[in-house]
Amino acid sequence: MSTVTFRLPDDTCLRLKQLASSRGISLNKLLEELCLVAIAAHDAEVRFGALAVLDRLDALDRAGI
Asked: How far apart are the C-alpha atoms of 54 and 19, rounded to whole Å?
């Protein structure tokens, strides 16, 4: 497991701590979950982009171009 250190504005850090507390999880666990959501969103965007390219290539192929 890796350790990452980064800086946040104090008010942002406080709000994240409050959010984690309201969910009954640690700040570390909250940040881990938020990172996983960001990665999943990125992966979906890349996947849909690739599918769009493949659809366009398929359409060109069907058109004989």
From this structure: 41
